[in-house]
Amino acid sequence: MQEIEKNIFLETLYPGVTLGALVLRHGTILIDAPLRPEDTRSWRAVLINHGSSSNRILVNLDAHPDRTLGARAMECSIIAHQKTAQVFRSRPSVFKGQSGDSGADWESYNDAIGTRWAAPDITFTQKLSLHWGPPDVILEHHPGPTPGATWVIISDLKIIFVGDTVVYNQPPFLANADIPAWQESLDLLRTNYSGYTVISGRGGVVPFDAVRLQLQFLKNTVKGLEKFARSNSPAEITEKVVPKLLTELSYSPHLEEHYVQRLKHGLYQYYTRRYRPTELENQSRQVDSEQ
């Protein structure tokens, strides 16, 4: 665990996403949840040793299973954006493990199947302030990686948790993305939050230049996909840009297969949804008829 400021902690060693915790005067604000129950117990015990009380609330930065499957085990109220809550309303109450080829971290954790979701208890649309400190904590909606993506901003300390808006030296998840909105969010981050400590939802504190690199990655992604769209190519062809996109990243060789699969899945889904929506509707109707 890393303490980046007094009573503000990060944990990057558990499978899933970067966890945050703000141990404040009136309680603890948790940012995302561990994926596995044993990690939840460990995380809670560590925080108790650092002054965390039973008064706590959990912020889900988006609806991705890597950060939400363990939310129920945190045993506290949950805050998320309204569009994140809508995702939970469309899910079955028990996680069945669909799309096991998305390159997500939960896919290497067999016991994730059968986990009961915990839907948000509190939602917001644009901004929500938590006065549990000092310092004050602001939750803001900044779509892009998902429709309900949220940032946690601590202006007094110049710290910002950006979830999957910035992922460093690994490919982003594209299946539910809105890349133009994502680029707008990154432009805002680069312009308005220079000098802030930026905390990625996957990898912890990242250099500020990671914002520029994320923008460039998305621009290159769009460039490749629009070339295929102009020639009306099928979605399967999108995997051809995977090797080129991965050359922009620096990562351990043992992650190669994992990251290839993440990009293949995300590019296929994004391309189909944005450039071939009729094909996606036909697929959905076929699935409905088989159920």
Report what the structure shows.
By secondary structure, the chain is an alpha/beta fold. The chain has one domain: Ribonuclease Z/Hydroxyacylglutathione hydrolase-like (Metallo-beta-lactamase, Chain A), CATH 3.60.15.10. The protein contains eight helices and 13 strands. The chain has helices at residues 37-49, 65-68, 82-90, 179-192, 209-230, 242-246, 256-275, 277-290; strands at 2-5, 8-11, 19-24, 27-31, 56-59, 77-81, 122-124, 127-130, 137-141, 150-154, 159-163, 197-200, 204-206. Strands 1-2-3-4-5-6-7 form a seven-stranded mixed sheet. A six-stranded mixed sheet has the order 8-9-10-11-12-13, with no helix packed on it. The longest helix is centred in the last third of the chain and has 22 residues, at 209-230. It is globular and about 60 Å long.
Q: Per CATH, which architecture?
A: 4-Layer Sandwich
Residues in β-strands, percent: 15-25%
Structural class: alpha/beta
Q: If helices are DSSP runs of H or I spanning 4 or more residues, what is the number of helices? A: 8
Largest sheet: spatial strand order: 1-2-3-4-5-6-7
Taken in chain order, the helices and strands follow as EEEEHEHEHEEEEEHEEHHHH
Shape: globular
